[in-house]
Specification:
alpha+beta; Glutamine Phosphoribosylpyrophosphate, subunit 1, domain 1; four-stranded antiparallel β-sheet; binds aspartic acid; hydrolase; protease; asparaginase activity; Ntn_hydrolases_N; ASRGL1_meta
């Protein structure tokens, strides 16, 4: 049964991605399962009348806890074998944003980013200082090394053997969520371990407003993934917003901005977008990108370029 919030205003939509990249065949089932679980968790928040920001953060939490993704537990490693994470949240109503860069040893970097937005007079805090700020205010710390997984260690060995950090080839598992709530407000949340074998102290696109994400209630909301340095150079998230402002649909704006990134910089990326009417855009120029969205009683998802599956969700009676 639909909750009171559902249908009261704009359509409720919760859209997530689980990263653009060369996802190996054996990684596909866990990624598809993970993005659907995340979309469902975020949608439940919307259905209960919750705010878009709460819903987007809830969806990212699910993927930060799942080592199928490169965020929180399961993050990829820098060249010294350490986890240094980036995260960003943005609230489309106020344009408030909060971010953390190269933050170590917290279970949910997205919570730290939100805390920066809500409790600091700044947009971005980095490194140990960001961790101290967050943990002092209740964000869950992780013991040193607890976020490192054998898979991330294997990926680092491969990255070091390959020796080329300029191309995006991470296996594609940064996570992001965008949402529109019953009051028509938008939000974006993105979280990542960055790229395997990155330099110590490297900040990627994810925590940079307009690169890793953007949200503006007057237009739409975006979360991106892919080669961070290319996303920074093209301001990918904000470029999509600008194209939508010029009249392109969420889908066309997302595709066009990504095509431009590929053409100019010969690298790969992906993005998810919602317009302020609840129209969906999903595009990637990488081999794969897992994504899912819940809208009404439909769960849509896919990972390959032409894949778009739809399932009807049977709600449990309350
Ligand atoms: N954009 C992320 C970064 O460069 C990586 C990714 O999305 O795969 O930090």
């Amino acid at each position: 049964m639909a909750s009171a919030a559902e249908g009261a205003g704009a359509p409720l939509v919760l859209l997530v991605h689980g990263g653009a990249g060369d996802v190996a065949d054996e990684g596909v089932p866990r990624k598809l399962e993970g993005v659907r679980r995340a979309a469902q968790a975020g949608y439940e928040v919307l259905r209960g009348g919750g705010a878009a920001l709460d819903a987007a953060v809830a969806a990212v939490h699910v993927m930060e806890d799942d080592d199928a993704f490169n965020a929180g537990y399961g993050s990829v490693l820098n060249v010294d074998g350490e986890v240094e994470m980036d995260a960003l949240v943005m609230d489309g109503k106020t344009l408030n944003a909060g971010a953390v860069g190269v933050i170590p040893d917290v279970r949910h970097p997205i919570d730290a980013a939100r805390l920066v937005m809500e409790c600091a007079p700044h947009v971005l805090l980095v490194g140990e200082a960001a961790k101290r700020f967050a943990v002092a205010r209740g964000v869950e710390a992780a013991p040193p090394g607890a976020l490192v997984t054998p898979r991330a260690q294997a990926a680092l060995r491969q990255a070091v053997e390959r020796g080329d950090y300029t191309m995006h080839d991470t296996g594609g598992s940064t996570v992001g969520a965008v949402a529109i709530d019953s009051r028509g407000h938008l939000a974006s949340a993105t979280s990542t371990g960055g790229t395997s074998g990155k330099m110590v102290g490297r900040v990627g696109d994810t925590p940079l407003v307009g690169c890793g994400g953007y949200a503006d209630d007057t237009v739409g909301t975006v979360s991106t993934t892919g080669h961070g340095e290319s996303i920074i150079k093209t301001n990918l998230a904000h470029s999509i917003i600008v194209l939508m402002r010029q009249g392109l649909s969420a889908q066309d704006a997302t595709q066009r901005a990504l095509d431009e990134l590929g053409r100019r910089l010969n690298n790969t990326a992906g993005a998810i977008t919602l317009s302020n009417k609840g129209d969906v855009g999903v595009a990637f120029i990488s081999k794969r990108m897992s994504w899912a969205y819940r809208k009404g009683n439909e769960m849509h998802y896919g990972i390959d370029p032409d894949q778009h599956c739809v399932e009807i969700v049977q709600e449990k009676e309350n």
